[in-house]
Design a protein that fits this description.
Radius of gyration: 14 Å
Number of strands: 6
Shape: globular
Structural class: alpha+beta
Helix content: 10-25%
Distance between the termini: 25 Å
């Protein structure tokens, strides 16, 4: 899956979060990261950067995006509080919107040793590509 298509999937999913508004980084003037979504909820603005690692052997550039590989959808995470609540809610909404392209999700905040970003997720896609959602300030 390419970054632009993943961003649209995430943006559509974020729009289903109760009481939240979602925009792309580009729509908010954020030029620091090429892909990402901004979620405004409960008086807070939270930025989620998107990065995608292509499937093995996939060629990007002028090549068209391959057809999605679909399968059974994974279960969503439990919902904790604060920033982690938005992280988990966003992942849950993404899984609900997923047509079956997502093979697995690892949410960062509950990990015993989360990565440096602290909040976000790694999304493994059935075509072999990976998407990363990272909380950025």
């Amino acid at each position: 899956m390419r970054p632009a298509r993943f961003q649209q999937l995430l943006l559509d999913a974020a729009a289903t979060l109760p009481g939240a508004a979602a925009k792309t980084f580009a729509d908010t003037g954020n030029t620091r990261h090429p892909y990402g979504v901004v979620i405004e909820a409960g008086g807070r603005t939270i930025n989620w950067q998107i990065a995608v690692m292509g499937a093995p052997g996939e060629k990007w550039g002028d090549h068209p995006e391959p057809e999605p590989m679909l399968g059974e959808k994974p279960a969503g995470p439990a919902m904790p509080t604060e920033l982690a609540a938005v992280e988990h809610g966003l992942v849950a909404a993404l899984l609900a919107a997923d047509p079956g392209e997502i093979a697995a999700v690892e949410v960062y905040s509950p990990l015993p040793n989360p990565p440096a970003v602290g909040h976000g997720a790694t999304i493994d896609l059935r075509d072999g590509s990976r998407a990363f959602i990272n909380h950025v300030r």
